[in-house]
Amino acid sequence: MTDEHALKERIAAELGAVRERSHGLTTGVLPDEELTAQVSPLMSPLVWDLAHVGNYEELWLLRAAAGADPMRPEIDGLYDAFEHPRAERPTLPLLPPGEAAAYIATVRSKVLDALERARFDSADPLTAGGFVYGMVVQHEHQHDETMLATHQLRAGAPALLEDRAPAPPGPPAPTTEVFVPAGPFIMGSDDPWAYDNERPGHVVDLPAFFVDTEPVSNAAYERFIDAGGYDDPRWWDPRGWEWRRSSGKAAPAFWLREDREWLRRRFGRVEPVPPDEPVQHVCWYEADAYARWAGRRLPTEAEWEKAAGWDPEAARARRYPWGDEWAEDRANLGQRALRPSATGAYAAGASAYGVRRMLGDVWEWTSSDFHGYPGFRSFPYKEYSEVFFGPDYKVLRGGSWATHPLAVRTSFRNWDYPIRRQIFTGFRTARDAR
């Protein structure tokens, strides 16, 4: 079997797997009226996401990569994420669920036919190493995670079945924080399927620091609440304090107090907040305030990446904290469970420095604004990364339980507004080594 044939088989398998997941979050679990409804102005109707992933696939795998004529050019504007903000998408003449499903199925059939004839030209950055196919698969997985956030915002009866539980809690780590010595490391990636904002790999020299061994837990965050953390402006960034006062928020999203117990709503179920799980659905301002209250700070994204992926003995970066090969038993990724795992789980997935659960469970806020690396070049379009550069967006790292393994690695960068809470976000803290 040639390398090209093996790559095509892998691409076909990944395309099939992600589409099965997409249908399992839309047409496979909800009636049409719920697929077309908007549960929050922060989110698109699920039927928009479903047709959007197919339209994106047509644009890149049929038109750009295969040179095909447009199938339905009249819908391109409807599914252009930059032409219509989420709040107005329900007013658009969107394809109804049945028509959307038929459209994306036809696109996929044509893509698989074109894949048989495809050539991966090393001189063409779009097709080299199957990049454009990896981009499309990752894009659909990212929208599947967005669809899960929409499900979390839904009211009414649960639509998603409970999957198997994440790994049970393991023995506690020997220390609550890990020392990462000073020195240079290579930040970023030249992986064939890495995005433009992960490139190029470049040397960053950091001073020594300490970082939490595990993400901040619900129990620890409850102590911040009980200590009056939401009512003390000393701990808050000025913009965060204004958000706190204007929003009235006094706990993570989806938490509610009943008598003396904190409960949470999770995919239509109300349950006690598990003390040993990472805190989830907190915005950057909340994470930053907790860190200040604890006498610590959020790690920079360079610190996060070094702690997660650098192998000091081999002097090279790892794709995953534990190595370069994916291992299902080392991280809570891929929607294997609909919640984070407990403290002590996945100890075998620790990084070379001994930092645990840096991939999966919850996205982790960092202190860094989203910018391009030195030598950054936008590819294949500015709207993926470059238009978001600047101080308005904070970087998140590591993926969550809802992130597919194909769509995350130690170099992967996510970003969002510092007020966002509907996404599956948590954090860990750091401190300078003196």
Description of the structure:
Strands 12-11-10-13 form a four-stranded mixed beta sheet. It has a three-stranded antiparallel beta sheet with strand order 1-4-14, covered by helices on one side. Strands 5-6-7 form a three-stranded antiparallel beta sheet, with no helix packed on it. The protein folds into two domains: 3-153, dinb family like domain (Four Helix Bundle (Hemerythrin (Met), subunit A), Up-down Bundle), CATH 1.20.120.450; 163-434, paralog of FGE (formylglycine-generating enzyme). 29% of the residues lie in helices and 14% in strands. The chain is of the alpha+beta class and 434 residues long. Strand 6 and strand 7 form a beta hairpin. The protein has helices spanning 3-24, 32-35, 46-64, 97-117, 131-153, 218-226, 238-247, 284-293, 301-309, and strands at 177-180, 183-187, 202-206, 209-212, 255-258, 261-266, 269-272, 310-311, 316-317, 363-370, 390-397, 414-416, 425-426, 430-432. It is built from nine helices and 14 strands.
Neighbour order of strands in the largest sheet: 12-11-10-13
Q: Tell me how many strands there are.
A: 14
Shape call:
globular
Content of β-strand:
5-15%
CATH architecture of the largest domain: Alpha-Beta Complex
What's this entry about, in short?
The chain has nine helices and 14 strands.
Which secondary structure elements does this structure contain, and how are they paired or packed?
Blueprint: H1 3-24, H2 32-35, H3 46-64, H4 97-117, H5 131-153, E1 177-180, E2 183-187, E3 202-206, E4 209-212, H6 218-226, H7 238-247, E5 255-258, E6 261-266, E7 269-272, H8 284-293, H9 301-309, E8 310-311, E9 316-317, E10 363-370, E11 390-397, E12 414-416, E13 425-426, E14 430-432
Helix pairs in contact: 1-5, 3-4, 3-5, 7-8
